[in-house]
Amino acid sequence: MISLVNSPEYAQHQTGSHPENQDRLDAIMNYLQKEGELENIDLIQPIPAQEEDLLRVHSPEHLNHLKVFTENGGGYLDFDTYASPQSYEIGKLAAGGAINAAELVFNQYDFSYSLARPPGHHATHDKAMGFCLINNLAVALKYMQEKYGLGKFLIVDFDAHYGNGTAEIFYHDPQVLYISIHQDPHTIFPGKGFVEETGAGEGEGFNLNIPVPPGSGTSDYIYLLERILEPVCRKFKADFYFLDVGFDGHMEDPLSRLQLDDDFYPWIACYMQKLTSEMVLILEGGYSLDAMARSNLKMLKVLKDKSTHEEEWRPPELLVRDENKNTLKNIQETFSPFFTF
Q: Model-level pTM?
């Protein structure tokens, strides 16, 4: 079974003409409605996260700053991260939506998708950045650790941008394996996410970055992910899986220079089902409304049907850039003490 956690209240995080605006969620929901897909998906209203949930991830100073800033009218927190008067409360709702999705998968559903905003994976322990106020996925993960005592968590993040906030929060934690495929940080925000950033202390080897150059497309992603995900996931043996979904790697998206097509999204949904029968999806980026709508529909259909036939979405021949073949070799060498590919 599959559920979708969403609320019209997310529109109260008012960002005007900012790329991260309510049109993103409306485009997805309206398209799913138009195509008749919402009839086959259970819609769940999110419940706001509590302060104690947020404090497992964020500093009291960060949360207090967000609260006071929004109560005083909001504005730009930095050069590209905007908060309106209701944004702190809606941020708690988005974090709560991630918790709700995680509990739904733990207790009942095979898949649950938190379709929320503001997004979260750039928000660090003590800072809002990259359109993100609160790290929704990290809040949900820490909640599941605390409430259910789950041991190992695996996160696969395919947003075009490295989820630096999520990575930093769990950088020293050997119980959380974070895998991110993203545009080369030399060429895009946040300027982090290189292969050499492998984790630290007890967490060394549990932060696996797959940077790809601009122009990389579906063939490049499939080539890399087929060779990395299965052996790493099989060895790590996670108790709980998160898929951090971003649609800004699509060829139509204005905020990256990647070339993914619509078929990548059902492919990754199929492929992940070979690794786990239960999974929480958390929405991050994606700023082409048409591309987001189409790609979400295809991805959700695959999950609803529990399809594992990824060859249906796989190009007949993988045309792979030499840079990405070299990146794979670099990853294999760097992670040889931890995993065998």
A: 0.97
